[in-house]
Amino acid sequence: MTSILRSPQALQLTLALIKPDAVAHPVILEAVHQQILSNKFLIVRMRELLWRKEDCQKFYQEHEDSVVSASREIAAFFPDFSEQRWYEEEEPQLRCGLVCYSPEVGIHYAPGTGGLGPA
């Protein structure tokens, strides 16, 4: 699936966590995924993660709603992801050009990046 996204404003990174009770049911998980897509969010990275209860408690204890918090959390979930590089290289392509969606990988990407984009 390819579409054109034209936005005068820079895109923002958002971390979405899907809780285990939704992931445990494939129909619910697919419905959540479709809801994200139908609201025109771009998925630029996706990862499945199994956490211990202690890890979850620590994460939610430290969580606060801010750009700094979001950057820290994205780094925790995607240690190979460079937020700066994403804003410099991928974000302009996604904002101003063709956008493809790979159902196999479950992410959006700009053509020519192979569906994975720079880390």
From TrEMBL:
One GO CC term, this protein: mitochondrion
Alphabetical list of Gene3D superfamilies matching this protein: Nucleoside diphosphate kinase-like domain
Protein origin, superkingdom: Eukaryota
Keyword Mitochondrion in record: no
Pfam families in the record: NDK
Biological process, per Gene Ontology: negative regulation of cell growth; negative regulation of mitotic nuclear division; nucleotide metabolic process
Keywords: ATP-binding, Kinase, Magnesium, Metal-binding, Nucleotide metabolism, Nucleotide-binding, Transferase
Repeat recorded as keyword: no
Chain ranges of the Nucleoside diphosphate kinase-like domain: 11-85
Cofactors named for this entry: Mg(2+)
GO molecular function, one term: nucleoside diphosphate kinase activity
PANTHER family given in the database record: NUCLEOSIDE DIPHOSPHATE KINASE 6
Membership in a protein family: Belongs to the NDK family.
Protein name as catalogued: NME/NM23 nucleoside diphosphate kinase 6
Organism: Equus asinus
